[in-house]
Write a structure and sequence with these properties.
about 180 residues; alpha+beta; outer membrane lipoprotein receptor (LolB), chain A; nine-stranded mixed beta sheet; 6 helices; about 30% helix
Length: about 180
């Protein structure tokens, strides 16, 4: 459980580091999976990339890596990403679409969503989180390999069959509950 939470926090921090890029959220039918990505033919001048910040700098890449003990496959396009990870035998997917970070357990269809900009604004005391970048993630990742790929924008649309809980709403509810308990004392 600790590894899973650590992995999810790491993925959120990655999104926070990429969150100040201006991107547009992809439209499309969220009932389609859109999880197809085809590797483009590479030429000798398009050798694989082993630096994540180069993949996030622009273009479309399919990356594989080891991150905090998890096997991760990540699709990066114009500052957005979709990742698939196996943590303690459970498959977790996540999407960062330029505004929100969605992360969910593939089997249970339960997940969380976080407005990355709000997270950065509401937690300035977490200075390192706001400054987290793909190159800092590179320090935690091993066996990074990214190849140019053709990736559909539908890859960055959250699935409609997953129930997402908004972390900001959960935090507000917890804060209100604590205030009510303190008022009763």
């Amino acid at each position: 459980m600790k590894k899973m939470i650590a992995f999810l926090v790491l993925v959120l921090l990655i999104a926070a580091g990429c969150g100040d890029k201006e991107t547009t959220s992809a439209g499309g039918d969220s009932s389609t999976s859109g999880n197809e990505a085809k590797a483009e033919d590479t030429t000798e001048s398009e050798s694989p990339v082993t630096d994540l910040s180069k993949a996030y700098a622009g273009g479309s890449f399919e990356c594989t890596m080891q991150l905090e003990g998890a096997e991760v496959k990540m699709y990066v396009k114009d500052g957005k990403h979709f990742s698939e990870a196996t943590v303690n035998g459970k498959k977790w997917d996540s999407i960062y679409n330029g505004e929100y970070m969605y992360s969910w357990d593939v089997e249970s269809k339960q997940g969380i969503k976080v407005n990355v900009k709000e997270m950065q604004d509401s937690a300035p005391e977490q200075g390192d989180a706001a400054a987290y970048t793909p190159s800092k993630m590179q320090e935690s990742a091993t066996k990074v390999l990214c190849k140019k790929a053709s990736i559909s924008d539908s890859k960055f649309v959250p699935p409609s069959d997953v129930e997402f809980q908004d972390i900001a709403e959960m935090m507000a509810q917890a804060k209100a509950q604590m205030e009510r308990m303190q008022a009763q004392q």
